[in-house]
From TrEMBL:
The keyword Protein biosynthesis does not apply. It is found in: Cell membrane. It comes from Candidatus Schekmanbacteria bacterium RBG_16_38_11. This is TIGR00374 family protein. Signal peptide: none annotated. Its main location: membrane. It is a multi-pass membrane protein. The lineage of its organism: Bacteria, Candidatus Schekmaniibacteriota. GO terms for cellular component: plasma membrane. Keywords: Cell membrane, Membrane, Transmembrane, Transmembrane helix. InterPro entries: L-PG_synthase/AglD.
């Protein structure tokens, strides 16, 4: 009842800018892999992928790789590593934003540092081919994952190219800019509720809670993101009802807004992509 609704259009605009910047990153990766696709189709594919925002770590966005295949026959093994690269650079961008706040507020430093180290560990493994091949050879000895090794090896060439250290800079800068837009949106939500939390603290809270949600691997980070966000707000002396309301509003304007936008783009282009049942059938993810 106390929320100033005139903030809402600006909040949603900032969220949309986040999507546009992330589309820029998606398009940048397509060019790195020399995947030919028109800007319009690329945009439709990217926005349709937002329907999978509620999947663990957003890795359901591998849907984009399948939609790309439907349009121009790009092998899924070639384009799917883009989703991994997107998640890696998203986390690097979030860690950069949260790291400044964690250092200043002396809160959450270990989680931010651990996340950053894990990311660079992944990058290092992918960058050293003999090490990667050694890992896949060990995977072949495990019956449960043996059948997936061939697909992993097929995707390796694209993944190692996208996650080379020299190619991380531009996508990470784009990620910092895009996620800071949502941090600003969170700040406006708090301002709309009459809270005096600074933009600096709002950026830390939002980015840190998003990292925690991503690491939890729960669908959309549901539960962990909200708990972290609300908890830190309360620690900063924000009244519990305001903290809960702020968390609910920003999650509605980001996570669920993304799902709605993705659904609109996906279903209004169903003639281009085919039926949803066809998109998610098992064979589509193993070719």
């Amino acid at each position: 009842k106390k929320f100033s609704w005139h903030y809402l259009p600006v909040i949603l605009l900032l969220v949309l800018v986040n999507y546009l910047l992330r589309f820029w990153k998606w398009d940048y990766y397509l060019k790195l892999l020399n995947i030919p696709v028109g800007k319009k189709d690329s945009f439709i594919i990217f926005m349709s992928g937002l329907i999978m925002a509620v999947t663990p770590g957003k890795f359901g966005e591998v849907l984009k790789a399948y939609l790309l295949k439907k349009i121009n026959l790009t092998p899924i093994a070639k384009s799917s590593p883009i989703i991994l690269a997107e998640r890696v650079t998203d986390l690097l961008g979030l860690c950069a934003i949260a790291g400044v706040g964690a250092y200043s507020l002396h809160f959450g430093t270990r989680i931010v540092m651990a996340t950053t180290l894990i990311i660079f560990g992944i990058v290092i493994v992918l960058g050293i081919e003999p090490l990667f091949l050694k890992i896949t050879s060990l995977m072949e000895r495990v019956k449960l994952v043996k059948k997936h090794v061939i697909r992993v090896e097929r995707a390796y060439e694209s993944a190692s190219s996208l996650l080379a250290l020299k190619k991380l800079f531009i996508p990470t800068i784009i990620s910092i800019l895009s996620w800071f837009c949502e941090c600003l949106a969170f700040y406006l939500v708090l301002a709309g509720l009459g809270s005096n939390v600074s933009c600096f603290n709002a950026a830390f809270i939002y980015s840190f809670a998003t990292i925690v949600g991503a690491l939890s691997m729960l669908p959309g980070g549901i539960g962990t993101t909200e708990t972290s966000m609300t908890g830190i707000l309360i620690i900063l002396k924000v009244l519990r009802p305001v903290a809960v309301a702020a968390t609910f509003i920003i999650r509605t304007c980001t996570l669920w807004f993304a799902v709605v936008i993705g659904a609109i783009f996906f279903f209004t282009n169903h003639n281009k992509f085919g039926k949803l049942d066809d998109v998610i059938e098992k064979e589509s993810l193993v070719e």
